[in-house]
Task: structure prediction
Amino acid sequence: MRRILWGGVLVVAAGCAPQVRGGAVNPTELSELEARRAANPNNPRTLTSVGVAFYRAGEYAKAKDALRAAVAIDPGDFTAAVHLGLALEGLEDYDAALAAYQSAGALNVRKADRLVVEERLLALTRQRLMQMARRAVNDERSLSNAPALRNSIAVLPWTYVGANPELKPLERGLAHLLVSDLAKLPRFTLLERERIQALSDELALSAADRTAPGTAARSGRLLGAEQVVAGVFRDIDGGRLRLDATVIAAATSEVRATGSASDRLEQLFVMEKALLFDLLDRMAVSLTPAERRALSERPTADIQSFLAFSRGLEAEDRGDFSGAAVFFQQAATRDPAFNAAKARAARSVKVGAATKLTGARISAMVQKRGPTMRGAQLAAALQSIAPSMAGRLYRLQKSPPVRSRLAEALRQDDAGRALDLLPVIPRP
Result:
């Protein structure tokens, strides 16, 4: 029997759930954990403690099983839900991990706890996109025969053919402009830029490959897109730029439309709009007056601000979120009305912080969560045999499974069983 001081109330804890500690767990301890789990298959507190220990030992499959059982019995256990997500991450089951974190974030927990979950979701999204790209390439044969999402468009990163390194970040910037504009037309479904970039990184295509219709069509099939937009820009005489873009049918590699525009760098937004309307016209897309006005809007009037924004996108794709935040902030400082830059700056700061938050750190933070005030009150009530207090706390409990077990513990005057419920009774 262990003695624990929680919230100023001395609690005598029934049972002997293992203490979770960092570092490796030897085979004997693993066997003891497995035995403890087998002996307490319906005790969520024990299952959570065992699951956390398995996670910290790197036994992710065993952790997943124990923690899933704990969450099934007590869906309100935040510690179990978060560690289930961590265990699933260890198994690289990112879809299931996302679901576990989303369930944890939906619980009635403190703001600090919810922030931890939100940051983990941000960091996990990037890993999931990279995994999706790897799977798409590995399953290329089956994906090539799968039907594409109707009216979906993937805008690939553009290709710069030139010698000025200051212009290369526009490969991302121009793709961002086209995605942002086409997304204003409800008839189209635009694939997210980060997902497309993850596939491009996985394929490691050369500049020549990206501009070839056959290769672009392949990228579209791997992404499940119906159409692909591939673009190239180059330096031409007189310090001017030329933009060329092609719309390609992913299923057949057929070129459905082409568009071109050329002018000085300072007129980049004018060129992009001219190219956009040219493509839509050749695709026989009729625009309403409202849509035409929306497509004519520019994110910023400052080309230097947009170049900084493009550098931010480039840094983001490298995984350098701190550097990306600096570039986005530079863009927003030059043009305070550049809302996309401000939003990206804030997001990069959050993602940068999230990527530095390790699983071990999250586990430690979650384990430091103290018991709730009602838990301490209930412990005191049961120890002093004050059924009126315990009964009032029982009525305040919203979780039906916990209410049921708590009611049974109270009927049997079983303080030990009731104390097992302390971590799952919510804060007032």
Q: What stands out?
A: The chain is about 60% helix and 15% strand. The radius of gyration is 28 Å.
